[in-house]
Design brief:
Layout lengths: L2 H15 L4 E2 H7 L5 H16 L3 E3 L4 E4 L6 E8 L5 E4 L6 E3 L12 E10 L2 E11 L4 E8 L4 E5 L7 E4 L1 H4 L6 E12 L2 E12 L5 H9 L8 H8 L7 H7 L4 E2 L7 E3 L8 E8 L2 E9 L10 H9 L3 E3 L2 E3 L4 H7 L8 E10 L5 E11 L4 E3 H10 L10 H20 L10 E5 L5 E6 L4 H23 L6 E3 L5 H14 L13 H9 L5 H13 L5 E3 L27 H15 L5 H41 L6 E10 L2 E6 L4 E5 L9 E3 L4 E3 L6 E3 L3 E10 L4 E6 L14
Helix pairs in contact: 1-3, 5-17, 6-8, 11-12, 13-15
Length: 725
Amino acid sequence: MDMVNKMRENILELLDKEFSALDLMTINDKLGLSSVDDLTTLEYELNLLVKDQIVYLTNKNKYILYSKCPDFKKGRMQINKSGNGFLVLDDEEDIFIDRDNVGFALDGDIVLVKITEDKGKKREGMVIKVLKRDINNIVGQIKSDGTSLFFEPDDKKLKITLTVEANSLKSCVEGEIVVVSLVEDLGKNRYIGEVSRHICHKDDPAGDILTIAANYEIYSEFPSDALAQAEELPDELDDDTINTELSYRRDLRADRIFTIDGVDTKDIDDAISVARDGENYRLRVSIADVSFYVKEGTPLDLEALRRGTSSYLAYSVLPMLPHKLSNGICSLNPNTPRCALTCEMIINKKGNVIDSDIYPSLIESKKKMNYTSVNHLLENDIIDSGYEEFSDDLKLMQELAHIIRAERVARGASDFDMDEIKIKCDDTGKAIDVDVVYRGEGEKLIEDFMVKANETVATTLFNMDLPAVYRVHGTPVADKVQTFIDFCRNFGIKIKGKFKDVTNPKMFQSLLNQINVAERQNNIIKSLALRSMPKAFYGTENIGHFGLAVVPPHTSYTHFTSPIRRYPDLLTHRLIWTYLINKKTDSETKNYFASSLPGLCEQSSKRELAAIEAERAVDKMKMAEYMESHIGEEYEAIISGVTGYGIFVQLENLVEGLVSVDLLKGHNFLYVEEKGALIDPKSKMMYKLGDFLKVRCIGASKAASTVDFELVEEKDNKDNKQQED
């Protein structure tokens, strides 16, 4: 061990024994150091430990391990429009931060918080230090004061003083949406920036969506080198390429294979075929072989990694790969040969895979089916034109899908599917309709087949004991599950039994199975159940997938089925080519993937989260735009959230807005967090999560992404009175 590493080890060993902070010279003396060089090395290593957030440096220049500071918590700041915030923690309840205690922290920063009030599950704190800034690029609009141009950030919560270099404004025009990159930190939230990217003009049809996307570093334009590489690729497979590929690919072009997607889908990843195999079923899931065209380290690959995923924002798609690939040579379009990777599974009547094979193939989809027509056939026995010859195939697929789904439920998988919103826009991009996405038999069938293929591929890779990418979902936190159970009981749901081992999927499933409420209330309950669980992510440590009841080594889970739109799937395809097809499993290969995959998984997880947040922000903005044309109209609604300043209500089409507490006249309401309710102690009037109301829209703002409601009539029936214990 070298001297520097030994010094680091000695520092950590010393600080682990101490329960109070020590200054530099005290640490020097306790370590028995005597030379100037040793003191210099000590100070250098301590600074690195502070930078790595292992050691905390106090305001009095003393050092102590974070683990020795129970009142200190590290996490990500989440600041709302009121200026108040929360420290978001993975394994604990979030900590409330009053806006007076936020300090210089910005939304998304990694910060150190000192707990100032601890009342069990309700904790408050104050920001002590910003450990890592989340901002590098700021989106905003170029404006004019009549004599010169200036930059105004889009994020009104951004509490910084920003000076944009004059030279970088020369290429801008008034009304343009741009990205400003921070080039110098002057301290105390003062920065110098320069215009680094031009997005669009604010009046462009998709300008509103592109502006939100840019806030999450999602851009429509591809770098020139990536586009140049894409242009070099063929539009179709020619005969010479087909003959070459058939030397090592299985020819499945004669197979009765087809795709099922949305009517407007253009980036088609997956194709399926099913046949009987004695008493069993033979399921083939063929996935576009994107890795054949997107080679590691190329401009296309590097840009795909930067994006991480395709982003589906209202009516627009900002793809991970240029359209030349995503809608062209990589998409499994009908009646044209395509390169694929096929996962072939023999599945018994219990839904178990008893044999499997994963191999490169050449396929030719016989039909591009859509969910609407497939649902007509499977749900109503109505055969749309062009589906006649595929009727038996689809019914056999439905039979198998039900078997697969039953097996997954039997082992403890929970149903966390939430209703999704569908926004329809006109030719100018304006929202003209909002509805709930229908998930029928066709959608569920494809989901069942893709999950089974993902499990089969992951289990195959796991059994090889080689580095791989897994889609993992950790077990719930006991305290958060108990909070959820307490809420259910306050909600009036009778929960029987004790749930000590919530890490057991079957036990958690039995908890959810006891919740029998109205369909719209069920969505609210599901959202609360999800809060008790960690988020799924990509990783190289195979901890399993709790929600799907995937428990290694019996089963494992990865993402394999969507390489056109998800980077981890592309990584999995490369691993299949390396390990299974090219048989490269030597130590050099193993070490390469062991060192590279963790960082790639982290980047993929980060970009997935950004895409999800962008989608939510666009939906919220478009819903507000839609409601601007419906002010004054009345709706049936359900309470979807309760705060001290009002109640959030959700319409049947999932549009959500606020009824301010100031509009609940004649009562003195108090917010009771443990009941998820506003309660007037005197009249016993109560508004709680899941209550049904009739509301009127009194305001909407696309610019602020807000919708405001008022009650049409005061709640006064028995269900709205606080129940006596």
